[in-house]
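new request in #modeling-help
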Amino acid sequence: MSQAPEESRGPVVTPVRVVIALCLIAPFVAMLWVGSYAKTDPAFIGIPFFYWYQMAWVLISTALTMVAYKLWQRDQRARRGGTR
Amino acid sequence: MKDGVNGVALAVFIFFFLLVTVMGFLAARWRRAENEHSLDEWGLGGRSFGTWITWFLLGGDLYTAYTFVAVPAAIYAAGAAGFFAVPYTILIYPLIFTFLPRLWSVSHKHGYVTTSDFVRGRFGSKGLSLAVALTGILATMPYIALQLVGIQAVLDVMGVGGGEDTNWFIKDLPLLIAFGVLAAYTYSSGLRAPALIAFVKDTLIYIVIAVAIIYIPIKLGGFDEIFAKAGEAYGQTNPATGAPRGALVPPEAGQWTYATLALGSALALFMYPHSITATLSSKSREVIRRNTTILPLYSLMLGLLALLGFMAIAAGIKVQNGQLAIPQLFETMFPDWFAGVAFAAIGIGALVPAAIMSIAAANLFTRNIYKDFIKPDATPAQETKVSKLVSLLVKVGALAFVLTMDKTVAINFQLLGGIWILQTFPALVGGLFTRWFHRWALLAGWAVGMIYGTVAAYGVASPTQKHFGGSSKEIPGIGEIGYIGLTAFVLNVVVTVVLTFVLRALKAPDGIDETKPEDYTADAGDPGVQVELPPATAGTSH
């Protein structure tokens, strides 16, 4: 099965892997750039922007991680199949 | 605080407490393996947990009294600054996704139970492994202390803790009892106890959150009203500091602090021995990645709970000790019986992680200090015995933190632990991806980070405390206020990289690496991967 290192089959950097990396990096950029969301407006059902925006990112980052997971699985399957 | 003891709430609280205690003892029989006297069995539950149990277990140590008491209390005290816990938990998932599967694979291939096992195997350095083990045990203690503070806050609000005027023994008696129960069932059931209790805990927590987040805002007149009142309260000048109490949005000057606290905490979380324990007890590499896609539910919970800090202000709760704000809010807003349920959720929510943490720290001591340095020929039965004893000692250490340190800013307990544990990151995560770092450079970097972090934290004063009064300080060279742990971590990495260049140039002897590149990607079912490790010491490769 995956006895050989996953990384050594085929090129290391592929478009799919770039997308996976972007999915994983995006939350860091969004969350650490505090200046981009340090404001109260627009409020959502009375909750200031600062708070609901970050909670929305919980959902966004979940979706991104899920995409990364699915892409990674596909990538791995393709690689194993492709070398047989 | 209402006068006297809240009888109904206390009765409900005790009922749930007894329920989990019984479950804890029964857990010893649940999914029992042939040999309960192995460390693997007691300390890792036999490493056979699938997605759901792992999820509960991980959730069990990620979301704790930290979530329920410390974070809302920080919000209650200062506003926006306390909300950094939400980005912190968001950043955890991409991190888990990236490096934990590799750790799982290499651990299952070589029978590693702790991070120190891995570091020793990877770098062939007992010194580095000892440093990682000591750091893990030290950093876990204030984190357990935070859990005990959570339980104490609940007991205080129920009127059991006694006021300031009673003597210290009466005041702390309920805490000691809760502590005794925890110690007893952890001792007898190992990791199985917290895994099973986590179901009860999470069910209670979901119910309480759902009710709190719908019922309290309605009663308080909606979020508009809540945030308007909170904004007003933060604008008032704090007589102790002469500055406004807080703000609804972090000001320019607080944004570095906010971001560094979030990033530092996220990097630190998976260095803790207990997070690793939960990860390694999962059945396969896939379980971990699958988990990262459902764990964020907990982050959402955390965010909603954090808002309770604002609700406490809007409800007019006024407490000297901020940790009491949320329990007090529950007592004021809920009927007594439901307040009891909420208190039980907080209490058990603190108990489970405390158990997991102390087991993990104990594993670390037994395998990487006792076996490596004190008694290399220890039998599995002896190992388990030492582990159980150490798990008690770690809890006693945590108790000492609670009884002697200032509890009004409990979140600092966790942040202090984070400063320390973060210093093991280069050896562990660095080691998972590259063998380039030199073992001596890693050790030197660790020492520099530990010393800087401890000294810097020692030097932070707060209105109530001369030392260890906070976890943020000016970042040298940048001039902004940032999390000490992250600054120390950067120093650590710089020292490690520079010294690695020097040592490589000098051709200093490199340790023996017992792992192979393919070990880092092996999954259950591959040859040589131990899914259920043999009951012995699991350390056959050493």
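bot summary: DSSP finds 21 helices and two strands in chain B.
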